[in-house]
Amino acid sequence: MPQYADIVLPLAQPAYTFAISEGMEVHIGDAVAVQFGKNSVYTGIVWRLHDTPPKRGTAKPIIKVLYDKPLLSEVQIRFWEWIAEYYISTIGEVMRIALPSTIKPKARCEEEFEPYTPKRERVVRLIEEALSADVLEKMARRAPKRSAAVEALRARGGEAPRHEVALEATALNALCKAGVVEIFERDLMPHQTERNTLLPTLSEAQNRALNEIRQGFTTHNVTLLYGVTSSGKTEIYTHLIEEQLSQGRDVLFLVPEISLTTQLVERLRNLFGECVVAYHSKFSPKQRTKIYTDMLAGEGGNFIVGARSALFLPYKRLGLVIVDEEHDASYKQSEPNPRYNGRDTAIMLASLHGGKSLLGSATPSIESFSNHLSGKYAYVKLMERYGGVEMPRIVISDTIRNVKRNERKLHFNKELLDAIEERLTRKEQVILFQNRRGYTPYLECPQCGYSARCPHCNVSLSVHQQRNRAVCHYCGYNEPITSHCPNCRTVEMKPMGFGTERVEEALQEVFPKARILRLDGDTATSNSAYSRIIGAFARKEADILVGTQIIAKGLDFGSVTLIGILNGDNLLAAPDFRAEERALQLLLQVAGRCGRREEQGEVIIQSADPKHRIYSFINNYEAGLNTMLTERQRYSYPPYVRLLRITLRDNDVKRLVEVATLLGDALRRRFGRRVLGPVSPLIDRIRREHRIEILLKIENSASFAKARAIVREEITALRSQPSAKRTTIICDVDLC
Questions:
Q1: Sheet harboring 181-187: ordered strands across?
Q2: In which region does residue 6 sit, left (phi positive, over 0), alpha (psi from -120 to 50) or beta (all else)?
Q3: For the CA atoms of 199, 203, 205, 207, what is the dihedral angle to 10 degrees?
Q4: In terms of DSSP H, where are the helices of 220-257?
Q5: Which long-range contacts (CB under 8 A, 24 or more apart) does 209-212 make?
Q6: What are residue 673's phi and psi, to 5 degrees?
Q7: Which of the chain's termini has less CB crowding within 10 Å, N or C?
Q8: What is the DSSP string of 695-736?
């Protein structure tokens, strides 16, 4: 019998060995309470059982096993190990993000440690042997209410929750004394509902795509569905989902943003009923724990719709993972470790279960498109909008020409103003897109060039006029808006650029009778606020919606016939090799929000560089991807190489430079010219911490697993040096 267990704790630490007390039954995957340090009691997961004592010191005993069944299955354990290994983190860091906090309590001492206890319910059960014909006849004659309750219980199989038994306490106690029923407590059973599936009828093009997806799954584990906006990809998904649920398999439907789950769940519940379960990190810990434990107790057949945190639920038989909007950068975890990609991790999860993955997008990522070209993914195209609706007409409006002709008013070219006026006259709706929230990116003194900067981060403060504050979008620092330059004193500060708040103000000036709503990070501060704004626009309570890229994702408004993109060039300004890809995706996604019913929509893109090649790719997305792939190959960028970025952070800039130089030199000895840096990033100080980055490029012909192992080895060696102990080192694998 094993005497020791390696326990994973929710810390950035390796597993620690604890002793198993005599008579204690412990299994791999069990959650246990252990003392770690002098005063803390943690929840840990049993990772390995063995009979080897620790090399140093005496192993502390496991205090107790917390639950009656393991929290993790064998597949989940392998899944966590893969994430920790691939994304260069510890399994403890995976545990920290994977399990709801309620299910993994921590306390200062054993007496304060309170493990999660599932809610219990009182149940009334019939004692059939006491129900003789005489007893039933006498009860029907003397106590008709009790008789009706007994018959109702018999119809339900002999038992029901107490709150569903229509008897007062006195009458129920009398039945108990008579030996007719018994009352007991049990854990609240998982919520089970019958599916009420009403699948939509597919068009000929959708049916063709559905059959091609099925065919693709016979030869590939992953299929990429390239379907233009409003082509009806979700309707195709529903047919594949029903096939899996009817076989008792689990289905995971991933979306990139939490805000999208509400609309999608409502839509899917209209088809599948209450079996559709939403799950994301904005749920309370108790809500998340309830879903987790219900799935743990169930037998499969779950239909989960959620953001990337839904990957860590205890699936029994995962048959299908759908990754909608697979191109979206929101699938990449930015904080904290592990910095995993939800799309790629979902594919691995499905593979571990022997299931299939379907990636869907109107603008597939270059990586996924490349995997199709290499034969790794099956590929299905759906190029018709549902109902035969035409794709929107694209107009590129030359901003420089409008300025020269004095035809530009505030932030709007004449073509856009005329088009908005026309839509307002026809009682149609308009969406205007500006990918920057706030009033203006910053205020600048026209005389001396002064602009207010964050004292904690190396960035300018963005102006939020309605709040009358200048705000740092990185750390949240804010201060009152300075109307006059603190240096020159008398010169009025000039706004540079414009955000959604300023666009809203300008629209109200140009179209005073128009009803305007704004959707950005300042107005959509919660799911309810987001839903309220979207609902009001859907009910036509507003004529114009101004928004950031939030409006590009998953919205369907039948009356929107015009989209205005106010600064197309701004999307291309990012110092990033993905800038063109992201810009093209965003332009197409925003454009896809209009003309989704009978009438063809129109998209007007304002640009100071109307001949930029990105605009020629709008009507031929695959050609754009192929062009960008050629350039990526020429200059050694993904998908032809793998990128691994190492970020070092420290309050002491001198120590940071020293540690970064040591690590850079060590990596260069192992990797040579594949190492770029150390170098300061564009924003080199955030929340008072200075930052330095090292970039590692590994060609596809080399072993990326070996490269990650070397990086882990060198970082471990560096951390053993006193000078590096206070420097934070973060690895970002396959950075987005």
A1: 159-161, 120-126, 181-187
A2: beta
A3: 40
A4: 233-245
A5: 209/236, 209/380, 209/381, 209/382, 210/236, 210/239, 210/240, 212/378, 212/380
A6: -75, -5
A7: N
A8: EEEEETTS-HHHHHHHHHHHHHHHHTSGGGTTSEEEEEET--
Residue 480 has pLDDT above 80, yes or no: yes
As beta bridge partners, residue 611 has none
CATH number of 389-437+500-631: 3.40.50.300
Is 152's pLDDT higher than 80? Answer: no
Is 3.30.70.1150 the CATH classification of the domain at 4-112? no
Domain 641-733 has CATH 3.30.70.600: yes
Q: Does the pLDDT of residue 382 top 80, yes or no?
A: yes
DSSP per residue, 181-198: EEEEEEEPPP--------
For residue range 55-94, list pLDDT tens digits in order.
887 889 999 999 988 999 999 999 999 999 999 999 999 9
Q: What strand order describes the sheet that includes 478-480?
A: 462-464, 469-471, 478-480
Please provide the DSSP assignment of 396-408 as one string: EEEHHHHHHTT--
Q: Are the CB atoms for 71 and 296 separated by under 8 Å? A: yes
Tokens representing 111? Answer: 């007496």
Mean pLDDT value across the chain? 88
135 has pLDDT over 70: no
Q: What pLDDT does residue 306 have? A: 93
User: 56, 87 in Cβ contact below 8 A?
Assistant: no
In angstroms, the CA 103 to CA 116 distance is: 5
Question: Residue 193: its pLDDT value, please?
Answer: 57
Supply the pLDDT for residue 196: 67
Neighbours of 593 (CB within 10 A): 25
Q: Which of 557, 551, 560, 617 is nearest to 590 (CA)?
A: 551
Virtual torsion, Cα 500, 503, 505, 507, nearest 10 deg: -140
> How confident is the model over 336-377, as pLDDT tens digits?
889 999 999 999 999 999 999 999 999 999 999 999 999 999
**Torsion sign (Cα): 344, 346, 347, 352:** positive
Strand order from edge to edge, sheet including 31-36: 16-19, 4-8, 40-50, 31-36, 64-65
Question: Which amino acid appears at position 647 of this protein?
Answer: T
Mean pLDDT of 300-320: 94
pLDDT attached to residue 187: 62
CATH number of 204-387: 3.40.50.300
The helix, strand and coil proportions of the chain, stated in percent and rounded to the nearest 5, come to 40, 25, 40
- pLDDT at residue 115 is higher than 90: no
User: Does the reported pTM lie above 0.85?
Assistant: yes
Q: How confident is the model at residue 672 (pLDDT cuts 50, 70, 90)?
A: very high
The DSSP code for 569 is G
Within 13 A of 370's CA, how many CA atoms are on the CB side? 16
Residue 522 half-sphere exposure, CB side, CA atoms within 13 Å?
Answer: 25
Residue 711: partners with Cβ closer than 8 Å, 6 or more residues away: 88, 644, 646, 667, 696, 731
**Residue 9: burial class (beta carbons within 10 Å; 0-12, 13-18, 19+):** buried
Yes or no: say if 348 and 82 are a contact pair by the CB < 8 Å rule. Answer: yes
Mean per-residue pLDDT for 531-542? 88
266 φψ region: left (φ > 0), alpha (ψ -120 to 50), beta (else): alpha
Are 444 and 461 in contact by the 8 Å Cβ rule? The answer is: no
